[in-house]
Amino acid sequence: MGNEAHDQQYSKKLQSYGHSQKHKLKSIMLVILTNLVIIYIFTGPFSFLYHTSPSARDSNSILQELNSTKAQLAATHSLLSELHHRLNSTNLLVQALLIDLTRQQEKQSNNADQNQVSLKVGSDELTFALGPHKLPFGYSPRIGSDEIHLPFGASCMRFQEELNQYMAYDIGGECPMDDVLAQRLMLKGCEPLPRRRCHPKSPTNYVEPTPLPESLWTTPPDTSIVWDAYACKSYQCLVDRKNKPGSFDCKNCFDLQGEERSKWIFDDGGLGFGIDQVLATKAAGTIRIGLDIGGGTGTFAARMRERNVVIITSTLNLDGPFNNIIASRGLVPMHISISQRFPFFDNTLDIVHSMDVLSNWIPDTILEFVLYDVYRVLRPGGLFWLDHFFCFGSQLNKTYVPMLDRIGFNGLRWHVGTKLDRGFHKNVLYISALLEKPMS
Length: 440
Prior knowledge:
The protein is α/β, with parallel strands linked by helices.
């Protein structure tokens, strides 16, 4: 019994000693580990954070540098973010531009292909007339090319059948009598027409014209005209139109001894301006050259010719030989429609006149382009005589007055009156205005 108790007591002491030794061993290991960590911290890569600074001044300097570096890093990060945002925006813009450029190139390529196809199906003479044609001496720096493309109305390609008909003739032979066809193409926007290699039919028994100044008021002989294209076959027939019912272009203007003889002679103080009164608004002799838009048989040019002013008259041959009678009177006709850009350089003409032609039958957009073209060709101080422009009363202040204001003319004379031949109840007005292009 005594030995067993002694053994049990010894076993307990041994266990207690083992536990105590383990505890001490753990403590020693913890101390060693702690020392190792402290040694690593103070001697490793982050040791500078824990070293005692030599002085407070050095510590403050390091702190300031750290703060400055931190601020610079923050600013750099912000700048990088902004540059990244801008780069993304630029990439999107470039992508959009590339897409738009690709579409435009495809559109131009398709248009070019369509034009080439159209020309291929046209006549050989049409293809040859349009070119392009190589310059005999190669590249010209003045043109910027080694070939010439001839002018050709873009709308012509919309009327392929009529255009092919116009270009169907025997080379070197007589041109077909297709004045009506040619003028119809022009009025559709096919202007200028391509040139042709054929001879127009000449009048039979043609005689020399009447000399100036008698020719200004002399009806030309019938032998000066090829009458095939017209309903009338003589000048007398054209003169007699004034007594016939129905509507004709410039119904009275072939009678050079009738109303034409008295036009623009007198100034009534209202809608009817006199030429002498208009010319008097400028220094004598400074109105020398000009244009009459849609000038009928050329009477305005004739009156100005008597005052030593040269006027070119634009007109079409709408069922009458308007260009021919102007030329027979010793004046200069120009066979163009109102849609074509005036073939004059900028700031060159002293006066532009238009009676009846420029009016509300022309679409507003086209009319504004025409009026800007008038402004373009007039020299500074040049005159625009808008003679008996007609429109509805509701259009005057809503459409046409603002349009003229936008273009920028100075007003010298302005009169508005009722157009009585349409009936007073229809409220159709006439406008006569003398406008001046500013000097600067």
